[in-house]
Amino acid sequence: MFVSSGNSTSCQFPLPGIDQMKTTEAALSLGFGFSNCRTSLLWKRNSLHHTVSINAFNVKCSFKQSRQPLTSPKAIEKKTIKKVGRKEHHLWQKRDSAGSGQKALNLVRIVSGLPNEKETVYGALDKWTAWETEFPLIAAVKALRILRKRSQWVRVIQVAKWMLSKGQGATMGTYDTLLLAFDMDQRVDEAESLWNMILHTHTRSISKRLFSRMISLYDHHDKQNKIIEVFADMEELGVKPDEDTVRRVARAFKELGQEENKTLVLRRYQCKWKYIHFKGERVKVRTNAWDEDDNLSN
User: How far is residue 119's CA from residue 93's CA, in Å, rounded to a whole number?
Assistant: First the structure.
C-alpha cells in the first residue's frame, strides 16, 4: 500500500502476521467454529512491529468432535436410562408341591390304621396338619385319589368331610369323589343332602359330570323319580346330558310308564348315529332309538 506524507510518497508493505493476528483474535473473541479448542495467544509488542506467537500444544481440536451433531440433554439422559425388567404380578400364589406325594402316603398310612370313629380320625388329621404353615391341599387331594383307587370308601368320606369342614377343597372334583363314595357305601341320604347343598350353592357352575354322577347314584338305588328331578334341573340350567345319562333317563321314564317322555328324550338328546367296530373296521350306523322312532312315525 502507498502512504503519502507531505511531498514524499513511500511504499510500505504489510507486515505478515499482523493482519492474520487480528483476524484470528476477532474469530476467537466471537467464538466462531472453535468450540472444543483451547488457545493461548501470547502477544509481544516491540517498538518496531508486533509479533504473534501461538502455542500449538495448547490448541486441541478434534476433527471427529467438530463433525459430531449437537445432542440435547434429554437425548443424553435417554441413553443412560437402563430398562428395568417387567415384574409379573399374580393374583394367586402357587403352592409348593414338593414332597406332597410323600405327605399323601403318610396321610393314607395314618388313616388306614385308625378305628372307624369320627373323633379319632379327625384328631389324627388335625395332628397331621399341626406343623404346617398353610393347609397341605395338594397332599390331601392326592391322598383322596390313593384312597379312591384302593376302594377305601369310608376313609374317602372321612377325609373329604374333614377337608370341607376346614373350608378346603370345595371343588367339583372333591364333590364328585365324595358322591361316588356315598354311592359305594350305600349312603343315599347323605349323598342327597350333599347334592341339595351343591345345587343351592353352586347353581350355575355345576358340571355335567356332577349331574351324571348323581343320576348314576339314583339309578343304582332304583330311585327313578329322583332321576327325573335331577334331569329337570339339567334342562333348566341348560346342561346337555351325555349318552350314558340319556339312556338312564330314558329307562327311568320307561319304568315309570311315561313312554312319550322317553321318546322325546331320545329324540332330543341321543345321537342319531354311532360308531361300532365290525370286522376290524370302524363303521357308522344308526342308533336303535332312532330306528324305533322311524317305525313309530311310519
Answer: 33
Q: Which residues pair with 149 in a beta bridge?
A: none
Q: How far apart are CA 155 and CA 116, in angstroms?
A: 9
End-to-end CA gap in the chain: 134
Parallel, antiparallel or unpaired: strands 50-54 and 8-11: unpaired
Mean pLDDT in order along the chain per 10 residues (298 residues): 45 48 50 45 42 42 46 50 54 57 91 90 92 90 94 95 92 94 95 94 89 96 95 92 92 94 90 76 69 41
Cβ distance 287 to 267 under 8 Å?
no
Phi, then psi, of 106 in degrees rounded to 5:
-65, -40
Query: Does residue 202 lie in a domain region?
Result: no
For residue 184, is it within any domain?
A: no
Per the CB < 8 A criterion, the answer to whether 253 and 261 are in contact is yes
Quick check: 174 and 148 in contact, CB under 8 A? no
Domain count, the chain: 1
Which residues partner with 3 through β-bridges? 10
Contact at 8 Å (CB) between 164 and 170?
yes
Structural domain for 53, as ranges:
2-63
In a domain, 171, yes or no: no
The pTM is what? 0.61
**Which of 159, 166, 169 lies closest to 109 in space, CA to CA?**
159
